[in-house]
Amino acid sequence: MRRQALLAVAVSAMLFVFTAGASATERQRPMWQAHPLVGTWIVDANTDDTQDPPALLSIAADGTLRLTDCCNAPAAGVWAPSSIRTADATLLLPWSDEDGFVGFNTVRADVVVSADGGSLTATYTMDIPDRAGGSSGQLGPASATGVRVLVEPMGTPIGPLTAPTPEEATVPQEEPALEEEASPEPAPEA
Hints:
14% of the residues lie in helices and 39% in strands. It is built from three helices and eight strands. The protein has helices at residues 2-19, 24-28, 166-169, and strands at residues 39-44, 55-59, 64-69, 75-81, 86-97, 100-113, 119-129, 135-148. Strands 1-2-3-4-5-6-7-8 form an eight-stranded antiparallel beta barrel. The longest helix has 18 residues, at 2-19. The radius of gyration is 32 Å and the shape is flat.
């Protein structure tokens, strides 16, 4: 009887220790909801290409991600944490050629968030589709970097948001008056 009482106390103490400090919701929340990768990033998608424009990468706590840039169709994908500051990601980019949509370019990445949470680096491969239904296989690796987009308070406005009308945008300039040249008098008829 005494053993059962001691066992009950020990089990109760262990349960208390394991659950103290964490609410039921926190214990059931997946790791990625607190992962430092969650947020929006300005990304240099190919550090070897100095001509490519930056992209915006939004990473949600539900394991989804979205990439947009100025030159391509939006891309979407999924991610999962692989450790406290690292993650694996798969991104699908619409791929087309001169005849139209071909399929999805599959990007597979290993992502590392810096210790301060303000930047990331990624190594990735690309698997490019072809018209015959095949693919290139994983090409690469290539590298990407990113910086976190931070919340900034609104500053003091310097002017209105309204865009000028076309008339306001161009200042009419007076054209210089052309002097009329004297036209030759017709010759008298003989």
